């Protein structure tokens, strides 16, 4: 019998333990993924505590998974053994509820989240439906790709659908696992980026990531500071603090939007008057589908957005989990290798290379598609300038309708 190692929690609130399980075989429409890196997300704490309804125990969580296709189930097309893939928060959808029938798969009534609906990525292998797979670009390593399946797709999607335009003031509340990616994406989108955090110790990191301004929420009123900068078009609430997000609403410009990403059970304390006067709004945002994850990774590879990670072997999953809870690591990854061997025990920190919007995107050029001429017209030619001179073609004409032969038996008008 083929076996694999997994990191499981036997009961709510207990620690992870390494056990062996039978290597699963993929069913129809599924693939088996050999896990190379699995991210520890803040949401995993909710699963470990049993806060999500129906959480199965013993639990193998993990919904930021990068690896390679190891086996194909019946009927799988478009994927081959060895393909590099990512499985994020979006682990599949039912296909028959109203949101699914409207194409809104991320809001599926029976959304299948890895580690909740089925075994997650804190293991040497996992099985996932093909609808959950996103292809990993060659430019990204497994440890760089893993967090983009949830933290990356969440911040990237929230910003690109937030309604801001290049040059608008966009604030990122929190510079942690979500926020350090949000600052980078905001900079690459061409926004005037504001990072908001507690204390001055995170300012150097925030500016390295691309923030143009920094607000210390312990020393300044966040709303007033944002208004002095002109008011924010978007405040991206990545910090899991209802009080911090509520305090930032006053810093929105007219028709500005607070986008809530940080999950917390505490209610927001926002006056209806602060929303009505200025037409401000509050908007919740989930993660993204497999296609959103693929687009997040492609954009990150193109523009140099990279997560800050620390790599630890699967055996040290409890240490990695505690570092994530304490905030000592921006993102922590439990990383078994693809062949099932243990990853090196040494820790390694990846820091993103600081880049600006002009460095990478300036080389992009729009693609022009030449359409065939409309039937009944001659191709458009450039009209030659009047007057004599070399290279002047007096025979050039502007586009004009082509004359058609009259139907036999009729006269030309």
From TrEMBL:
SMART domains: PKS_ER (SM00829). GO terms for cellular component: cytoplasm. PROSITE patterns: ADH_ZINC (PS00059). Its EC number is 1.1.1.1. Keywords: Metal-binding, NAD, Oxidoreductase, Zinc. Residues 329-413 are annotated as: Disordered. It catalyses: a primary alcohol + NAD(+) = an aldehyde + NADH + H(+); a secondary alcohol + NAD(+) = a ketone + NADH + H(+). InterPro entries: ADH-like_C, ADH-like_N, ADH_Zn_CS, ER, GroES-like_sf, NAD(P)-bd_dom_sf. The keyword Cell division does not apply. Residues 329-338 have a biased composition (Low complexity). Its cofactor is Zn(2+). Residues 13-329 form the Enoyl reductase (ER) domain. It holds the Pfam family ADH_N. Belongs to the zinc-containing alcohol dehydrogenase family. One of its GO terms (molecular function) is alcohol dehydrogenase (NAD+) activity. This is Alcohol dehydrogenase. Residues 397-413 have a biased composition (Basic residues). It comes from Actinomadura namibiensis.
């Amino acid at each position: 019998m083929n076996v694999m190692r997994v990191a499981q929690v036997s009961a709510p609130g207990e620690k992870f333990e390494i056990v062996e399980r039978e290597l699963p075989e993929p069913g129809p429409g599924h693939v088996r993924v050999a896990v190379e890196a699995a991210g520890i997300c803040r949401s995993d704490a909710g699963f470990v505590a049993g806060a999500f309804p129906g959480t199965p125990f013993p639990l193998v969580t993990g919904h930021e998974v990068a690896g390679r296709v190891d086996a194909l189930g019946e009927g799988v097309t478009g994927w081959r053994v060895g393909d590099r893939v990512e499985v994020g928060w979006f682990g599949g959808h039912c296909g028959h509820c109203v949101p699914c029938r409207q194409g809104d798969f991320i809001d599926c009534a029976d959304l299948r989240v890895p580690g909740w609906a089925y075994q997650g990525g804190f293991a040497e292998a996992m099985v996932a439906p093909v609808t959950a797979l996103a292809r990993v670009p060659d430019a990204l390593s497994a440890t760089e790709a893993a967090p983009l399946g949830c933290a990356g797709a969440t911040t990237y999607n929230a910003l690109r659908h937030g309604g801001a335009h290049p040059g608008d003031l966009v604030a990122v509340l929190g510079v942690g696992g979500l926020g350090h990616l949000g600052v980078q994406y905001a900079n690459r989108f061409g926004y005037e980026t504001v990072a908001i955090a507690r204390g001055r110790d995170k300012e150097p990191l925030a500016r390295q990531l691309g923030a143009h301004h920094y607000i210390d929420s312990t020393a300044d009123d966040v709303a007033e500071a944002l208004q002095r900068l002109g008011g924010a078009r978007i405040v991206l609430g990545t910090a899991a603090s209802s009080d911090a997000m509520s305090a930032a609403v006053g810093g929105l410009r007219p028709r500005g939007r607070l986008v809530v990403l940080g999950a917390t059970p505490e209610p927001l304390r926002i006056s209806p008057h602060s929303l009505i006067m200025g037409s401000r709004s509050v908007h919740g945002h989930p993660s993204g589908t497999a296609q959103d994850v693929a687009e997040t990774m492609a954009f990150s590879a193109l523009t140099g957005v990279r997560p800050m990670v620390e790599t630890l072997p699967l055996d040290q999953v409890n240490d990695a989990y505690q570092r994530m809870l304490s905030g000592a690591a921006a993102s922590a990854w439990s990383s078994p290798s693809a062949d099932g061997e243990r990853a090196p025990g040494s820790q390694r920190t990846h820091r993103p290379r600081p880049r600006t919007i002009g460095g990478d995107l300036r080389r992009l050029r729009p693609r022009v598609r030449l359409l065939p001429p409309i039937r009944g017209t001659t191709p458009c030619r450039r009209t030659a300038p009047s007057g004599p001179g070399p290279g002047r073609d007096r025979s050039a004409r502007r586009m004009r309708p082509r004359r058609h032969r009259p139907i036999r038996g009729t006269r030309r008008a």
